[in-house]
Amino acid sequence: MRTSSNPAFRNLPTSPGGYARFGDAPAGMAGAGGMFGGGGTPPATSATDDRPLTVDDVVQKTAINIALALVAGVLTAWSGFLALGLVGFVVGLVLALVIIFKQSTNKWLVLGYSAAEGMALGAITALFQGLATSPGGSSFAGIGAQAVLATLGVFIGMLVVYKTGAIRVTPRLTKMVIGAAIGVVILMLVNLVAGFFIPGGMGLRDGGALAIVFSLVCIAIGAFMLLLDFDQADQAVKAGVPARFAWYLAFGFMTTLVWLYIEILRLLSYFRE
Questions:
Q1: Taking the domains of the chain in order of start, what are their residue ranges?
Q2: How far apart are CA 269 and CA 273, in angstroms?
Q3: For residues 54 and 249, what is the distance between their CA atoms, to the nearest angstrom?
Q4: How does pLDDT run across 77-114, given as a tens digit for each residue?
Q5: Contact 230/2 with Cβ under 8 angstroms?
Q6: pLDDT tens for each residue of 181-190
Q7: Which residues fall within 8 angstroms of residue 201, CB to CB, at 6 or more apart?
Q8: How far apart are CA 103 and CA 122, in angstroms?
Q9: DSSP character string of 157-212
Q10: How many CB atoms are closer than 10 A to CB 37?
Q11: Contact between residue 109 and residue 98 where contact means Cβ atoms under 8 Å apart
């Protein structure tokens, strides 16, 4: 299996044919209890969870998590308790680290992550929406709904691109996407640190022309990350891994969608100032 730019899909064990075999412990982890915490032996599951993974499983679990995040986000924004956003961010980060490092298929952890991220995104969106009620801030009205539709649009668009084979996922493309993703994250961190010493930092988030270009690049990278995520899910289905891993794959999609939503929301805000 090709390495994905999404940390949730990286370092998955592979079968001799190159596809994922989630029941085996990754190299170097057997001594630490394996990916399941028991020497690479999966925990007891129901017959339903042990049947082969299907595309419908991945679609349904991903849809459930997207819907949960949307509901949590709307409720958080509607409540006005924006402090819930900070709680959601911290809880989401902790759950994400647990899921990634344990490669957990526990649906409650995945659902908890989606709910927490929904809270965080809802609070961020509410901050922008709040500007709509301030003097001269009416241009921010409806920005949340537009960001949601745009994110879903990118998701559907990249799914069509993947299914039609318009862009094929190759090892070279995978390396390029991973390198680009690492690069923009480093730039974000440098810009953040620079902001403590220089007003506006490096200008990557100040709403200017450079900021617009940077956001477009981040969105493009997020879109290609989705392409790699689709490929990982496709290979997992072909490998016939247990159905319970649909939750793990859904978590991977959610991490990419969170990235996309934030960048699209930020880009839209630049054009509304």
A1: 53-272
A2: 6
A3: 12
A4: 888 888 889 999 999 999 999 999 998 899 999 999 99
A5: no
A6: 999 999 999 9
A7: 191, 192, 193, 194, 195
A8: 27
A9: HHHHHHHHTSS---HHHHHHHHHHHHHHHHHHHHHHHHTTTSTTTTSSSSSSHHHH
A10: 12
A11: yes
